[in-house]
Every structure is written in C-alpha cells, then in structure tokens.
Amino acid sequence: MKALITGITGFVGKHLESFLRDKADVYGTSRSNRSKNHIFEVDLLSETKVTRLIEEIKPTHIFHLAGLSNVKDSWKQKADFIQANVIGTIHLLEAVRKVDNKIKVMTVGSSEEYGRIQGELDKVIEETALHPVSPYGISKCAVSMLVSLYHRSYGLNVVHARPFNHIGPGQRLGFVTSDFAYQIALINKGRIDDPILRIGNLKTARDFTDVRDIVEAYYNIACFGIAGEAYNVCTGQGVYIQDILEKFLSYSNKKIELVVDPSKIRVAEVPKLVGGPEKLYKLTGWKPKRKLDDTLKDIYDYWINNL
C-alpha cells in the first residue's frame, strides 16, 4: 500500500500515520507543515495542486481526513466549513478521476450527518435517513452524497467512513472530553485560583470510540470497503455526558464547582446519537478494543503532562 493522508498533521491524521507506519509507504498533506519530507504543503482548495501531488506520489489509497470538524464553530463559519469540507472533497475526487480512478479513496464523514433522528431508534444504521442539524453536519452529508455520485457516475473506487464521537490523547480543545480533562488538570495543578468547571448540556448521550481504534477501522474500510458504500464507525453503546464528567471528576482530589457556560451549548442539540457498527463488523471483523475508562484516563494524563 502507498497511502496518502490528507490532513496528516491533525488529531486523527497523526494516529493514522502511526498505525500505518509498518503497513504502507505513507505520505500526507498539510496546509502549513513542511518539516518532514513525506508531508507536502497542499491546500485542497487548489485542484491543480492536488492533481499534481497525486500524479507525483501515485498512491494506491487515499485517506481523506482534511477539513474542519468542530460543530459549534460551524455555526460561526458556515461558508468556511462548506468550502473546506465540500469543495475540498470535490477537488480531491476530481483529481483522482483525472489521474487514476482505480485509486481507493476513503472519505471521512460524521455521525452528525444523521442529526435529529425521527422516531425512537436506539441505534442508527447506514440506511437511516440523514437529517443534519448543523452546518458541519450538512457539509459531511454532502461529502457522503459526493461519494455515491462519483462512484455511480465515474466509477471511482471511493468509500465513506461515518465515525461517531472519536476521542483520545492529543485532541485539541473544543471537544467535550478534552475540555473537561483540560479544566480539571488546570485545577489539580493549581493553575487557576477558583476550582470552577464550565460545562454545557450534560443530558445528551453519545457513542464514544478511542481514536486509536478509529484509525484501525479506517484501514479496514480502505482495504475492504465496497465502493459507493458508507460504514458507521462506533461502539454501539451510548454514554451520557454526565457520566463522562463524573469519571473525570473522580481524578480530582479537590472539590470542583460546576457552572453552566451558555457558549458551550449548541444551537440545535441532538439528545441522543448512538450508532450501529454491525455492517463494518460483518465486512471486516473490526471491533473497538479499548475501554472508555482507559481512554478517559489517557486523555486526562495527556493534559496533566502537557500543560
């Protein structure tokens, strides 16, 4: 395998590169990083540059991770999210179509494509109707439709991963587990005077998977996924944000006051979003290996060690 990872210097990109190190020749794109010979500074908003890069590298597989991913930020930067996630994907697929449509491309979507589920479904599967309720969700829904379009119309060998909440050490702030761990680490290290933890809505339930399990799923999808298809990447288990917070609070020996921060509450909140991973499991045998408690401790330890 000769793999090209767009967004290789991002949170998931770094973990995917590490996972692929003994399985493939790995190259990557970044909008700013030139520090390594295998990483190319390429903006996906330039179709010409993307085409030239693919012609130069001649990858057998492309993992398309580049884009914008924070749901809350998407409400403030709607056009930016559509441009980065949708137009960037079109440029990549056009480049593959022109250079070599046999290249296996895996695009990354999101559980946010499902949005607010109609009815009382315990788990959403790939055939569940998509009802995105945020600009980010809409952008990723468009990516999944582009996958289907380019496969049907041009025969591209492209598949779509639809990950639910992926978490782990190294994730930037702006995501719930990193935000909780960071604030509690600051308090335990004595970096702030008032032991106050700012929170959003704790009553929502999500499906959390360790990023190190996620990238293994991506590898399996890239190797075995059927062109034109989408695959949920998740545990199939819903966890309330309240329970996540209580686990992080158990790492603290200080009494912490909880304060609701309106800026952390989403404009359109989905109460529960849990996925069904059976399609991917039947195809590849992939299942998450890491326990949620272990992942949360790794996230907390990351912030304790990197403040």
TrEMBL record:
<dbReference type="InterPro" id="IPR016040">
    <property type="entry name" value="NAD(P)-bd_dom"/>
</dbReference>
<dbReference type="InterPro" id="IPR036291">
    <property type="entry name" value="NAD(P)-bd_dom_sf"/>
</dbReference>
<feature type="domain" description="NAD(P)-binding">
    <location>
        <begin position="4"/>
        <end position="298"/>
    </location>
</feature>
<dbReference type="Pfam" id="PF16363">
    <property type="entry name" value="GDP_Man_Dehyd"/>
</dbReference>
<protein>
    <submittedName>
        <fullName>GDP-mannose 4,6-dehydratase</fullName>
    </submittedName>
</protein>
